[in-house]
Specification:
81 residues, YefM-like fold, 3-stranded mixed β-sheet, 4 helices, 3 strands
Length: 81
């Protein structure tokens, strides 16, 4: 991702906006410190990409999921008391 300083962003704003519209986000920095990220509005944000529960109803978890393999584990490591 490209990083530009504030002065360059002001002088090249039209070009940078066109770049963002085409999907190439960029960061504006001041004195080398990143301040803002510029991306097109319909670009997915980090929150949109990570969807908790997106497969709800499509998979099932067995009731004994937390006990699966316990016999093998007990055999390998001995019975926990």
């Amino acid at each position: 991702m490209q990083t530009v300083n504030i002065h360059e962003a002001k002088t090249q704003l039209s070009r940078l906006i066109e770049q963002a519209v085409n999907g190439d986000s960029f960061v504006i920095a001041k004195a080398g410190k990143p301040l803002v990220k510029v991306s097109r509005l319909d670009a997915p944000s980090d929150r949109q990409v990570r969807r908790l529960g997106f497969m709800a109803g499509q998979i099932t978890v067995p009731d004994d999921f937390d006990r699966m393999g316990c016999e093998e584990i007990e055999h390998l490591f001995g019975r926990a008391e």
